[in-house]
Fold this protein.
Amino acid sequence: MKISNFFLVVFFCLGINLHSFSQKSLNDYSYVVISEQFEFQTEKDKYQLNSLTKFLFNKYGFHAFFNAEVPENVKRCEGLWVDAEGTPGFIITKIQLVLRDCHGNEVYRTKFGKSKIKDYKEAYYESMRDAFEEFIAMDIQQKELENNLQTSLKITASDPPMYSLTTANFPNSTYTSYTYSSQNFLLRKTATGYSLYLEKTGANNDLLLKGKITIKDVSIIFYDSQQNKLKAEFDEFNNLIIGEGTHKVTYKYQN
C-alpha cells in the first residue's frame, strides 16, 4: 500500500512539473498561427470556428493570427502553429487543440473539449471553449510583439483635434479587457486603431461591436455604431475614456 502511495505521489509531482514546463514554454513564444481549416472541416472557417479559436487565443494571453496576418518582422520560430482534431458525433462532439513549433514538433496538446449539444455549430463552440479551460488556468502572457501601430497611422488634416495623442498609454496586446456598468468589454487592436466590443451571449462569436477608435495625426476619435463622433483617450491607468463632461464614460482596464 505504501509503495502504491509512493508511485502516486511521484506521478502527481511529474504531472505538475510537466504542466509548469508547458506553461513556461507557451509563455516563451511570441505568437500563434491558427489553421484556417481544421482536419475535420470541409471548408475554411466553417461555422466561424477558426475565427472563434483565434479570438479565444487572443483573449487568453496569446498573440493569435491567421497565416496571412502574421507580421513580416517576426521570426518564424518564435511562433506556434495551432491545429484542432475533432470528432463530431450525434451524442458527443469532441475537439482537441494541438500546438506545434516551427519544426513540426508537438509542444502542447489540450484535453478533449466536449459538448452534448445537437446543433453542430453550437456543439463545436462549446467544445472549443471547454478545451480552452486549460489555457485559462495557465494565465498565459506571451512575449509582446513589436508595436507597429505608429507605422500604420493615417494622417487626415480635415479631422479636428480631440484629445492629445499620447501613445505611451495605448494597449499593446491584440485584445484588452475592460469593464463598465458590470459588463465586460474587449478592445481589439486594428491597423488604424481599435474596435470596442461588448461580450454578449448570442452575438456573433459572443461579441457585439459598439464602435471603433480611429487614431489620426494628433487625435483619438471614437465612432459609435451610429457613426457619432466622440472624444477618446487612454489614461495613465490604461482605462479607456470616451466622451466628455457629464457624458464621459470610463471603461476600467482589467489586467
